[in-house]
Amino acid sequence: MTTHVDSEATPAPLEEFLNRPATLTQRIHSVLHRQPALSPAIVLVLAAVVFSLVNERFYALQNLSLIAQQVAVIGSLAVGQTVIILTAGIDLSIGAVMVLASLLMSKLVADNHLPGAVALLAGAAVAIAAQAVNGLLVTKIKLPPFIVTLGTLSVFTAITLIYAKGQTVALQPGNILMWTANTVSVGQLNLTNGVLLMIALYAVVGYALRYTAWGRHLYAVGDDIEAARLAGISVNRVLLSAYMVGGFAIAVGAWILVGRVGGGDPNSGLNANLQSITAVVIGGTSLFGGRGVVVGSLIGALIVQVFVNGLALAGIDPNYQVLAVGILVIAAVSVDQWIRKVKS
C-alpha cells in the first residue's frame, strides 16, 4: 500500500520529460512551423521600414506601384513553382515555357491574324501541355524532376528560338493580349490588370491548397510519398496535376508578360526560372516538400523586388543587389533546415 502511494506522488522521469515547459526557442520554432509565411512577412516589413528610412521616396505610391508591376510576372510563375515544390519536385523549365507561350500568343495574332482570345487559349494550351510532358516524364518514367526539367529547359528554349527566328513581335494596344498592361488607378496608386490577375491566381490556388482534398493530398505526397501511397492516395495523379496546375500559372504569367513587353520577345524572362525558385524558397516553402503556403511565395517575390528597388534608391551598386538576393536565399534555406531539424 505504501509503495503504491509513493509511485503516484512521484512523477516518473519520462512523464516529467514530456510535461516539461517549452523553452522560448521551442515556442518560436513551433510558431514558425505552423506559420511558414510568418518569417518572410517579418523580413518584408523590416526591409520596407529600413529602406523607407534610407530614402523617403521608397514609400511613394508611384514607387509602390512600380514594385507591384515588376513582381507580377515572377509572382505568377511562383504560384506554379510552389505547387510543384510542395510535392518535393522542382521545375527548371518554367520560365522557358512561359516565354514560348507568350511568343506563340503574340505571333498567332501578329503573323496569323487570329483573334486575341484564340491566341490566348492556344498559348495556355501549349503551356499546360508542356507541363504535362514534364509531369509524365516524372510519373511514368520515374525520372527525377530536376533532371527532367533541366532537359526540357533546353528543349523549350530551343523551340522558342527556332520559332522566333531571331525576331520580336510587337502588338498594338487594344488587343486582349495587351489587357494585362492596362492600369487601374486608386488615387496615386496605379495597378495594372496583370497585378490584379496575379492576385486572383493566388486566391484561387491558395483556396484549393487549403480547403480541397486535392490540396491535402498534395501536401501528403510532398511530406512522405510512400505514406501517401499506403494511405490510398493516387500519387502519380497528384504529381501530374501539380505540373498541369503549374502550366495554368505559366499561362497567366505569359499573358502578363505579353502586356509588359508589348508583345513576344524570345529574350525576355531569361532569369525567370531561378527568380521563381528564389521567391518560393524565400517565401518559406520547403525545397523538401510538404510544407509551405502559396502566399509566402508572393511575399518572397516582394522581398526580392523590395531589396532590388530599395538598394537602387539608396544608390548601391547593382552587383550588391545580386549579393543581397543570394544571402536571402541561403538564410531562407538555413531557417527551413532548422525548422525541419527541430521538428525531427
TrEMBL record:
Domain of life: Bacteria
Membrane-related topology note: Multi-pass membrane protein
Xref: PANTHER family: ABC TRANSPORTER PERMEASE PROTEIN YPHD-RELATED-RELATED (PTHR32196), RIBOSE IMPORT PERMEASE PROTEIN RBSC (PTHR32196:SF72)
The protein's name: ABC transporter permease
Pfam families given in the database record: BPD_transp_2 (PF02653)
UniProt keyword Magnesium, yes or no: no
Principal subcellular localisation of the protein: membrane
InterPro entries: ABC_transp_permease
Keywords associated with the record: Cell membrane, Membrane, Transmembrane, Transmembrane helix
Listed transmembrane segments: 37-54, 116-139, 146-164, 184-209, 238-258, 295-314, 320-339
Lineage: Bacteria, Bacillati, Actinomycetota, Actinomycetes, Kitasatosporales
Protein's cellular compartments: Cell membrane
